[in-house]
Amino acid sequence: MLRFVTIEGGDGSGKSRQIELLDEYLDARGEPRVLTREPGDTPLGKKLRRLLVEGRPESLSDETELFLILADRAQHVREVIRPALEQGKLVVSDRYADSTLAYQGYGRGMDLELLRGLNRVATGGTMPELTIVLDCPVEVALARAADRGSRSTAPESRFEAEGAAFQRRVRDGFLELAAAEPSRCVVVQTDGSVMEVQEKMRRIIDERLHADGERRDVR
Ligand code: TYD
Prior knowledge:
It is built from 8 helices and 5 strands; from the N terminus they run E-H-E-H-H-E-H-H-E-H-H-E-H. With 219 residues, the chain is an alpha/beta fold. The longest helix is centred in the middle third of the chain and has 25 residues, at 62-86. It starts with a strand and ends with a helix.
């Protein structure tokens, strides 16, 4: 049964706007749901998020960054995600365990098997049934991020400051992870209009929600 969905993608993939629109859609359908995000959805997470995104790229070692992210996830899953799942709600998380494989693994070059093991500790085995990976060329993503930056007073995040080569490794990482798990992951290209991308996401989620219903009908 579709209960836990994660939305993944590189910086500037248009993820935040798409998740807002998805929430409006789920709201209109009356779907009991919790929309959440990593890093930073719990009170502890808000403090961790500040440490993670502020400052210069080199202000944290790769290992320190990893443990802050895992601490955020460990708290998030126990304080927010599992309680919502136990109440039968649909949980939609903006980033989750795949981000650690893409950013710390493919981006920073940390060992993927080690990260998978640490993710198992952090998540306690709570994993999404569906992951939508929003994908776009790095040049497009960087232009979007720069445009957002010019309209905002917030400083560029430590991750955005890493530059194009890092973002390219992250993108390739997400695509490789998605290809390795086609039953869980769906890649959506974000080169269409905002609403075209949104329609695709809504269809993917609807199909999974309905597929569960059909299976129940057959039995
Ligand atoms: P996010 O708020 O989603 O940034 P954006 O809106 O730019 O997509 O996430 C903040 C940063 O945290 C993002 O640049 C990626 C990074 N991150 C990791 O490196 N590893 C992780 O496991 C997670 C969850 C996030």
